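For this section, I looked closely at the sequence of one protein beside the tokens encoding its backbone, which the following lines show:
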Amino acid sequence: MVPRASRWARALGAALLLLGLTGAGGAHYVPALPDSAIAKPARQFGLPFAGAPGPNTWLLGQGYGNTTGAYRQRRSTYGNLQGIHAGLDFSAPCGTPVRAIGDGVVAEVDGPHGSPPHNVVIDHAGNLSSLYGHLRVRSSLKRGQTVKRGQVIGESGDSQFTCVSAPHLHLELRDRSHQRFFNPQPFIAADWNTLALASGFGRGYEYDLDSPRRWQSPDTQPQALRGGRLLNEFARPWPPAPGGAR
């Protein structure tokens, strides 16, 4: 009998091959993988930057999940991600070396999964994929290349393309189908409590005043499913979005 995880891996491989042959816009149409096919969080990955955090190196900018920043853009930028910030933002000067968070194989260089101007996707064991977004220049890596944890895979850039507006790295952890998005924190070995103290922007979480304790800490944030309903369409939000909800 073929193990369930192997069956899913075969189905996913066939679907990805079909998408590649038809040019149907990458893996966005592959069914989401079930929990049984995905590795559990066990702090099995590392941080995407070397050295100590600090104002002249890198800092945790925005957390994953129900952030106030994502709430304000829940119907636009994050509308297809159930209204939440589906990754971690690390503030860093442009050109800071970005490192693979774990051993894996390069799946995409400037693929279809967003975070321009440049991005890299690495596939890891356990049907997990990491995305490194807003890279300054196209990575020199090749699709299918094996990488090791800590290996430099690119340079951090700026989501506004200026290197002075919003220089940061956007890091996501997804299932291999790119349909489910996970909070990277329990997968990455780091002192998150200390890093959270120095968060620079968008660090707060949006309140639902009908359930004010829900999703208010970094380790209680929900998963997101591409195209699912908004998770944070609160009847009584706080703070309200300036100028109304977008």
Summary: Residues 1-27 have pLDDT under 50 and may be disordered. The CA atoms of residues 18 and 219 lie 37 Å apart. The radius of gyration is 18 Å. The first strand starts at residue 59 and ends at 62.
